[in-house]
């Protein structure tokens, strides 16, 4: 936008004269991408099974063995243990594609434009897949690991539930709720090693405003208020994400399905990842395109939990 001019004074930058050119910056504006957490909260244990062929993997489980009392002279009961298999379907696919005409490529002053666009497409692909996985896996959480009566042993832990009963998190109660999540996994005998919880940015902000800003409470030598690193809290490694599934649930604030658990709970398999550059057979230039085919499945529901919450 040019500088203001006094009434009646000529404008040499106007379209009728065009003495002052519009200059386009050679450097593009930096884009920011949502942080992806899929690799940190899921496993790819069965990806090798599906890499070359097939559209599903039958995952066999270990049956629960029955332990009985014994006395001398008793009769031995012989069990025939069975386990219900789980099926991982490769039933999702996402693509991107764009064309770079040869004339445009020759005449543009940004010579690496196509490569920059392809890089952006790859980042957007990761975000789209993360969003897809987080959108509905909370529905497959074990019944004792969610809702207002969570806890397989106690049944009195309130983790919130769809239908207007979300948990209001504040800087005062957020540590208590993280501890509740820990107890839910403890009651399911989930291993303590490798536990995670995914929180929206506002919840991470509440943690930094809570009593955990005291370095000793966070088990660290430096206050999280100073270094911004949340680290391990209540046995969980904290991950921050803008991609968690949300619902308005009849309230003004968005309610988030915050997942917690261990990586063995959810499996992810990508069967085909293609990024290609081909000639435009009906014109001049190149076509850039990408394809990813994948599947997702909660295979150990008791190792995954759902804290349904909103900002209080």
Topology:
Blueprint: H1 38-41, H2 47-50, E1 56-59, E2 86-89, E3 92-101, H3 102-107, H4 113-136, E4 167-169, H5 174-187, E5 196-199, H6 201-209, H7 224-227, E6 232-233, E7 236-240, E8 246-247, E9 255-261, E10 266-279, E11 285-298, E12 304-311
Parallel strand pairs: 4-12, 5-7
Antiparallel strand pairs: 1-2, 3-11, 5-9, 6-7, 8-9, 9-12, 10-11
- Number-wise, the strands total 12
Note poorly predicted spans.
Answer: 223-229
Oligomer category? single chain
Helix content: 10-25%
What kind of sheet is the major sheet? 7 strands, mixed
What's the N-to-C terminus distance? 44 Å
Structure class: alpha+beta
How much is the radius of gyration in Å? 27 Å
Averaged pLDDT: 84
Q: How much beta, percentage-wise?
A: 15-25%
What's the total helix number? Answer: 7
- Secondary-structure element order, as H and E? HHEEEHHEHEHHEEEEEEE
